[in-house]
Each structure stands twice: as structure tokens, then as C-alpha cells.
Amino acid sequence: MQAFEIVQYGPSVLFVGGELDMATCPDFERALAKCVESGGPVVVDLSAVSFIDSTGIRALANSAKRLRAGCLTVHGVSGQVAKVLGMVGISDLPNIHVEPCTTDPYPDGSSRLGGRTSEDVAARLHSLRTMFERHRA
């Protein structure tokens, strides 16, 4: 099984890496719910996600519906993930925007990471960056 990682950066930004499927989706849904509760806009970076199934797609769509204001931006999709999201037409749903991006999206700061130590955040972002580089190779 591939590693799975979620890093929340501030109240409404998530960086996700690995395979987003029925085994990992409950963690993703919990993290996404916290962002939605904070209000929009919400950004979910999927640059390091190599696979997404219907549970991940449903979590994105349901979260966008629950936003009281703002929108959900799905950032950094590529490869199979972009293909699947395109096939299901997720960007046709109200208040969901899909933005492909090929640059390294990971911040090097930690001041917005909700009580976690700089070292913890840096290590988790490094893990995501490694998944991103492996996925793009």
C-alpha cells in the first residue's frame, strides 16, 4: 500500500498525497470537513495524488455543496487523476474549480499549521514533495 499524507496549511488549504480511495477517504473527509467549517474558499492540492476513486470524488463534490460561501479549488491535478476528474465532469459542478499545475506547490513555512511544530510540518511537507516528484517522474 502506498503512503498517504494530508497536511492542513491554515484554515482552508489541504495538501494531499498518495492514493485517495475508500481506505484513505475517511481521513480526507475529516480534514476537508474542518476546512469547509472554516468557510470558503477551500483549496485542495492533489499534486501528489496518484489515484482517486469514486469515494474521493464524492468527498470533493459533497464538500463543495456544504460550503456556505466561496468555492472549492482542486489544485495540481495531472495524469490519471486529471483524466478521471475530467471524465466525471467534476468541474461542471457549481463552485468547484479544477486547476492543473506542474510546479512544486509546497510551502516551506510552518506559521499557519495549527499548533504543529515546524519540524513536524516540514517533515510531512517533505514527504508530500517526495510523492509529488515520484508521481511526476
Provide tags for this entry:
single chain, 137 residues, Transcription Regulator spoIIAA, 4 helices, 41% helix, globular
Secondary structure elements and pairings:
Elements: E1 5-8, E2 13-20, H1 25-38, E3 42-52, H2 54-66, E4 72-75, H3 79-88, E5 96-99, H4 118-136
Parallel strand pairs: 2-3, 3-4, 4-5
Antiparallel strand pairs: 1-2
Helix pairs in contact: 1-2
Could you characterize the architecture of this molecule?
By secondary structure, the chain is of the alpha/beta class. The chain has one domain: Transcription Regulator spoIIAA, CATH 3.30.750.24. It contains four helices and five strands; from the N terminus they run ββαβαβαβα.
CATH superfamily: STAS domain
**CATH C-level category:** Alpha Beta
| Sheet with most strands | 5 strands, mixed
Helical content class: 40-55%
With helices defined by DSSP (H or I, 4 residues minimum), what is the helix count?
4
- Order of the strands making up the biggest sheet: 1-2-3-4-5
Order of helices and strands: EEHEHEHEH
Shape, please? globular
| Helix-and-strand structural type | alpha/beta
Q: Stretches where pLDDT falls below 50 for ≥5 residues?
A: none
The total beta strand count reads: 5
Which strand-content bin applies to the residues? Answer: 15-25%
Sum this structure up briefly.
With 137 residues, the protein is an alpha/beta fold. 41% of the residues lie in helices and 23% in strands. The protein has a single domain (5-136), classed as STAS domain (Transcription Regulator spoIIAA, 2-Layer Sandwich), CATH 3.30.750.24.
